[in-house]
Amino acid sequence: MKRLARSVLAAFALLVLALPFAPAAFAAPDGAALYHNYCSVCHGDKGDGKSRATGSLSTLPRDFTSAESKRELSRERIVAAITHGRPGTAMTSWRTQLSDADIASVADHVYSRFVQGAAVAAATPAISGTRAHGGREADAASTPVQVDMTAGLPNGLKGDSKRGGAFYLANCATCHGARGDGAGPRAYFINPKPRNFVEPASRARLNRLALYAAVSEGKLGTEMPAWSKVATKQQMADVAEYVFQSFIQGKAVAAAAPAR
Questions:
Q1: pLDDT confidence of residue 164
Q2: pLDDT digit string (tens) for 160-187?
Q3: CATH architecture of 154-248
Q4: Every domain of the chain and the residues it spans
Q5: Is residue 238 within 8 Å of residue 246, measured between CB atoms?
Q6: Distance (Å, rounded) from C-alpha 17 to C-alpha 13?
Q7: Backbone torsion region of residue 9, taken as left when φ is above 0, otherwise alpha when ψ lies between -120 and 50, otherwise beta
Q8: Is pTM, for the whole model, over 0.70?
């Protein structure tokens, strides 16, 4: 009986290996496409740190093509940065969004294509822009931006919308307005105007990750400060969750009573 079972298993294994579609099921992740979808919004399509988002970040993205990067970066260090993020910068941990295989594939692409400067044939990206950071403006040759509104907060954080509501009303409503419409009592004196979270453009592009990044790092050229200097990661996660649920999704969320 055991001999028969082994024979059946062996025959099944040979059949699977013989199928023409079997290798495709175990194809390695496409590092170039993953880089384009998740990383190029900050680091640029050429890996030189030049992108549409550069002017909005308080710390400049890494230029993988620089002489400094070529001296300092190893594949292992790139894997560590993608996995754990870089404290004090806008680079967050991606381990909740990407698998180990995805991270390894992106690291291989960054190291070979940008750090070492290897010639790599450009693959057609699976998605234009990046879902994780709320997307970016599409150009004439790109497909429509796809924003992943199910993306969670970085580093495994879980936001509490009720606590976030209390924080928002105490610290953010004066500029962004209690209704999130950018019409707070200080808005008249601010240029450029505070973000209107309830307008269609915001609702189409801002997910939890994008909101957390804006709260944490601030927005250069505006009066939006980097709250990471004065607030905890949990507080920033809470307010990002509140803004996402209340204004981006339009759900009714009761704010918790302010702490005394």
A1: 96
A2: 999 999 999 999 999 999 999 999 999 8
A3: Orthogonal Bundle (1.10)
A4: 31-115, 154-248
A5: no
A6: 6
A7: alpha
A8: no
